[in-house]
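hey so u asked for the seq, here:
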Amino acid sequence: AATFSSVDSMMNAATTLLSVDVYQKYVHPEAREKQLLRFSRLAIVGMVVLSIAAALYTYTPDRSNNFFLRVSAQLSYFTPGIMAAFFYGAISPRASARGAVLAMVLVPVFGVSLEWAYNHWLHLLPGIEGWLGPKLNFMHRIACSFLFGMAVIAALRSSPEAAKESGYHR
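ran it, structure tokens below
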């Protein structure tokens, strides 16, 4: 139940961000509530299909790994970008929708790339393997991916004038 609750919350947050910050702002500014709802439903279907594809690609039946750790590890490619978008938006009036969307797109790519690079050659750097281990733990990848997402959003933040115009006040 806890896993399904987490998945549901993540899907709800991601579709809200996509619907309001991307679809309504850039694709269809005059979208009515019914159109936003339809787009949100299609976005959830798309995310579920991508998740199924990722699960099928990474699943090996001869493994004895803990199922819940495996599910968490798979979801953790997407959640750091969403967490960075929410966190940066909560702490800074200069957070931009463009930066948040780009972070949510780039963070999974960064996470996969970092894990591959670490497991193939980064762990060979002096002192790294003793500190992080021979394989990159998904919790370490989450932390690095979150920081990368924050950096992407910070690099694309709004000007102070745009932040004031948006009506955000501390």
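The two ends are 37 Å apart (CA to CA). Residues 15 and 141 are 24 Å apart (CA to CA).
lmk if thats what u needed
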